[in-house]
Description:
Helix content is 49%, strand content 15%. The protein has 3 domains: 10-99, Butyryl-Coa Dehydrogenase, subunit A, domain 1, CATH 1.10.540; 128-236, Butyryl-CoA Dehydrogenase, subunit A, domain 2 (Beta Barrel); 241-382, Butyryl-CoA Dehydrogenase, subunit A, domain 3, CATH 1.20.140. By secondary structure, the chain is an alpha+beta fold. Residues 129-133, 138-140, 163-165, 208, 211, 216, 365, 368-372, 374-375, 378 line the site of flavin-adenine dinucleotide.
Amino acid sequence: MAIEYLLATEEQKELANLAGEIARNELEPRLEELENANGGLGEYPWDIHMKFVEAGFYTMNMPEAWGGLELDNVTRGLILEEISKVDCAFAFSLRGLGDKFNLIIDSHIPEEDKKKWIDRMLNEGIGGAFGLTEPGAGSDSKAIRTTAVKDGDEWVINGTKCFITNGSIADFYGIFAWTDKTKKASEGITCFLVEKERGVKVSKQENKMGFHLSPTTELVLEDVRVPEDHIVGELGKGFSTAMGALDTARPFNSVFAVGAAQRAVDIARKYANERETFGKKIIEHQAVAFQLADLQMKVDAARAMTYYALQAGDAGVPLKRLASEAKAFPTELCQQVAVDALQILGGYGYMKEYPLEKIMRDMRLFTIFGGTNEIQRIVISRFMKDKVR
Ligand SMILES: Cc1cc2nc3c(=O)[nH]c(=O)nc-3n(C[C@H](O)[C@H](O)[C@H](O)COP(=O)(O)OP(=O)(O)OC[C@H]3O[C@@H](n4cnc5c(N)ncnc54)[C@H](O)[C@@H]3O)c2cc1C
């Protein structure tokens, strides 16, 4: 399969092609089985996860000093886009688990403990999850109710987190909790590193319309105790930690969407070159050919904006409104692509036998999580006010 990003270097193409090859060889033949596993809830394939870990496509931005490859955004984007062409949910979970090494490094646990966790990530492929959302607090994340109360040298955490990606397969979590309710969120919420073995209960696996290879769970913390050194970053600064992590992740949401959308176009293009109606291939009907042209144009536009943001991040340019723009616009373009590509397959597009109905279901998520696209518009529109520029 081609790497469509024209500015990719030979080295980047080689890495992305290798990741794509693993996904096509290992993941693609098992998609149906994994999609329907666990009574239809789906399954994240740990054996295939380990193949990506062994090939180096995990913790890809971990600093070299900690044993990682320290790959830049664009290179990671290209690798994850190729995996997303096979399954965007798997690619999303793979990145999510691996990128949480920051929770370990930014905590205050002893260096030898940090090293032990990082070594386990590199060798055993274990990973983390991000626990911000709660039943009553999604977009309005300041409305979280989880608390952490100081008791001697420890913090005692109580609360329920929902919709947590990888909650059931992670070994540690970043849990956001109020440490001082008398203060505003930017000073009263703290992020804690909480290992699963401290008593975090996975109380529910969500039954989703798509994204079945990425487990989404509810987590319950009842009197879970963590030592003082498990604070991630600074006491009271958890809200900015959360917003920073979401900002960094935003262009990557679009990477997964672009990969899945390109797959949708490739399937529709192949079909249009084979299917005949009224004595000719349907691509010979100009209406279909133009539809295909529009699809590819939209994916290319989505890709251009996504990689522009990734490249800006690599150059150290503050993304400001671009992080939100590069999440909202490409994901919406890609959603349209998935819907319209299915149309080209006619009735067959609607059948589970063809992958487009799954891509459409998976794709529906991208405008919702990581901050809904309405919330992205709130962020972008702040920059439209004279004083903020
Ligand atoms: C599959 C999946 C995986 C997820 N993974 C994680 C994870 O790993 N960790 C985590 O912490 N969270 C995770 N989330 C949570 C996700 O970030 C939230 O679902 C999302 O931020 C929206 O919150 P909500 O669902 O509570 O919707 P709400 O905030 O209740 O919003 C409902 C609707 O109202 C709109 N809305 C809300 N406020 C405004 C406003 N001020 N102006 C205009 N429109 C508004 C929203 O855009 C939306 O359309 C995940 C969610 C899903 C579905």
